[in-house]
Amino acid sequence: MMPDLFELGIDGTLQLARCLSASALDPTSSITFGLSGPSTSFYSCLCDELLSQDPGSFESVIADTVSHFTKSLSKCDTVLDGGGGSIEGGIDGGGMVIVSGLKELCSHKKAAACLTRVPSFLLPAEGSEKSKERVTPPVPTLPPGASAQQQRFFRMVQAMSAGRSGYLRRSGPALEKDTLLGLVLRIGLPMENPAVSSSFQNAASRTMKDVKQGIEGMRRQLRIYQDKCNELVRALVTAGADARGQVMNWIIDALLVNIGADAMRPDRSKVSNAQTLLNLAVVLLKLCEPFISDEKKSALINPGFASFAEGHGGVFITTGDNAVPRLAENPVMPSEPYKPKNSFIPQCFFFTARALHLSVVSGSSYHMGILRQVNNTAWQLRQRNENAQSDPNFNHILSMQYANEVSLLAPEMIADTLRFLNLTARFLVRIDDSQLALMPEHFVDDICDLTTFISRVEPKTMQGLDLGNIFKMVVKLLSPKYAHTVRNYNLRAKLGDVLYEVYLPPNVDGSSSVPRSVSCDPLTGGQPYLLSDASAQETLAPSLLLLYGEVEHTGYYEKMSHRAHIAALLKYLWESTEHRNAFRRITQNKESFIKFANGIMNETNSLIASVMEKLPEIRRVQVQMANPQQWAALPEEQRETITSRHEENERDVERALPLCNKTLQMLGYLNTDDDIRNLFLLEEMCSRLVNMLLHVLTKLVGSKGLELKVSVCILSYSGRDLVTISISNENIPLQCLFFFSHYTGR
User: Fold this and answer.
1) What angle do CA 377, 361, 167 make, to 5 degrees?
2) pTM of the complete model
3) Which residues contact 531 (CB under 8 A, 6 or more apart)?
4) Tens of pLDDT along 404-442?
5) Is-contact 502 470, C-beta < 8 A?
6) Residue ranges with strand state E in 55-194
7) N or C: which end of the chain has fewer CB within 10 A?
8) Which of 526, 491, 478, 535 is nearest to 505 (CA)?
9) With DSSP H G I counted as helix, E B as strand and the rest as coil, what are the percentages for the chain, rounded to 5?
10) What are the residues whose beta carbons fall under 8 Å from the beta carbon of 623, sequence distance 6 or more?
11) Which of 439, 471, 472, 440 is nearest to 455 (CA)?
């Protein structure tokens, strides 16, 4: 528009941007509303007219309009912020209003295509000179008339700023500061933002009802904003092949520059903020919705995409420092060219799986760390008889937990994630073995990590969801046939944990809060998957016995937890007639059974030795502490030393005792079968078993058992439940007496 002819049109693109954003407030009076459809709106007619007269001017108008949106977005950090209307060239309203305006701009497909061609849409190409440029934070300058003290302070600040490295033009921070979609997706409710964390001040002294109301209020605003983000991205990918290609290129860039987001402590000068990656995962999950529950469409997911470098742009590269490990070691790459029937569905599926790995999975690991910190701090305060409600450190950590739960544990996102994981499991079950070997290992790892995480912290969100394919995948990969495909012992141990945490009916072991509907198959009248699934009936019992020995390689403390879970699963399977034949088939392989039996006895001897050594020490300290005068007479330093050692002994017993009991119980019920008992009676087995049982009984029977009568409090992961175990000579497993009488009689 010519300024000398139309003075009011000198800021025409800003007016256009504001009119588009106003559509979020009153859609019926907006310029994108058409009585006979979107194509009859004033905005659509304006775009068509500009295109017909001067396509170059149309590109320029759209680019200038987008610049006003980006300028306003850069002023927003959370969905609680008011936006950039107060700045020159800004738009009134918060992030939701601004993103709504962008979505309305994209209601015209030609305008949407123009938006994806603006220079700020993509990061600089990898290896280009611009990608190597470093953006350094500005160094503060000394104000005029500063005092000597102020000058010293500013010099100190300047010295500190000089050490800051900034970020590269092609990096995670650049993605969310310099690109349009990055600016959109960075807005949310990040836990570190004061506007979010301050909402949970004095968290320990507030009621859970009050905290939940605050969380739900924030989640509603976040959900509205994420819905607008979904609408914007959907408008872009449906605007034509070119626009869709640009969006996919941006997603590839986002995944590549955030390769380090799954680290224990991500380098924030290289990767984007957690909220950016979480919003990216939410947007991709919505793009997958059309084929998640449609088996015909999901069958179009071509496994060859993981090996098609040209398609994934290096996201699933197999060589170099950023290599993504495959499920099998040294798999054979496919020789046939990648020719999918549909190219968009595989793209969405594989990129979503990768985005979840870099966002929700890494976020869940971080959140479990916060929970452990909360529990540990609360325990320490109780030991010192201090009030947690008034402790500032405890309140700070608890506020971090609640602030993080706002975004990470949003029920809609959790449900969408579980549905996608079930789809991934179905995909892994249906593909052939050669294709399975080429799949990224984190596909299976993420399924295990997220399902167990959700079952522990938010089990109610699993209600009504079908997770049957995850069960089938676990049974398949645990079976002896795939023992050489999935060689990672830690991953195989996680598969067993999924069965225990998610699919063992909640009334069996008493520790699960997962809804019963999750562990039961609706197609078999609500029978548990563990009992009704044909593959499980055939292979699961021998698979778990094999796994019992394999978890030896996962670490001293980790193996005890894994084996306690496996023992509980084996006991449940043993009590069902559906699995009895599978247990009997174990005896057909004498060599494998002897390895398993030796493993049980080695584990039992080790656990008994550890428990029997520490229980008398625990009892001695408990008696000492029970006498206030005697305890107070000791020097403070000595009391601290005794208390520290006492706590360590309690933790060791708490880990070992459940597995010890379950292992002895397992020996008992396995030996009720004649064929299995005969194997235990073999010459190479009998003497070892008798010696083990004699060792147990001599520790438990008689006056020595009185030294073991202690009370040990076990703090569960959530800090909500306290379980007290009383150890006394009345708790001797009857199986021990049975074995002893049987074998000594022989």
Assistant:
1) 90
2) 0.87
3) 537, 576, 578, 579
4) 999 999 999 999 999 999 999 999 999 999 999 999 999
5) yes
6) 134-135, 167-168
7) C
8) 526
9) 70, 5, 25
10) none
11) 471
210, 244, 324, 477 from 429: Cα distances, Å: 44, 30, 21, 9
Residue 727 pLDDT class (50, 70, 90 cuts): very low
Q: Tens digits of per-residue pLDDT, 502-512?
A: 999 987 766 67
Q: Is 710 in a helix, a strand, or coil?
A: strand
Q: Which helix (H) or strand (E) holds 528?
A: strand 527-528
pLDDT at 165: 66
3-state secondary structure of 323: coil
Token couple for 300: 């179009």
Q: How large is the angle between the packed helices 556-574 and 636-670, nearest 10 degrees? A: 30
Tokens of 292: 């998640």
Rounded to whole angstroms, the Cα distance separating 421 from 654 reads 33
Which residues lie below 8 Å from residue 316, measured CB to CB, with a gap of 6+? 306, 307, 324, 350, 354, 440
Angle at alpha carbon of residue 26, lines to 20 and 27, rounded to 5°: 65
Separation CA 559–CA 580 (nearest Å): 26
Q: Which residue has the tokens 């394999």?
A: 550
318 burial type by CB count under 10 A (0-12 exposed, 13-18 middle, 19+ buried):
middle
Strand 520-521 and strand 527-528: pairing?
A: antiparallel
The amino acid at residue 21 is S
Print the SS3 string covering 542-585: HHHHHHHHHHHHHCHHHHHHHHHHHHHHHHHHHCCHHHHHHHHH
Give, for 12, the enclosing helix (H) or strand (E): helix 12-22
How far is residue 475 from each of residues 419, 420, 443, 466, 498, measured CA to CA in Å? 19, 19, 16, 16, 10
The phi-psi region of residue 261 (left if phi > 0; otherwise alpha if psi is between -120 and 50; otherwise beta) is: alpha
Burial of 6 (0-12, 13-18, 19+ CB in 10 A): exposed
Instruction: Kindly provide the residue ranges of all beta strands, DSSP E only, lying in 397-508, ordered along the sequence.
Output: none
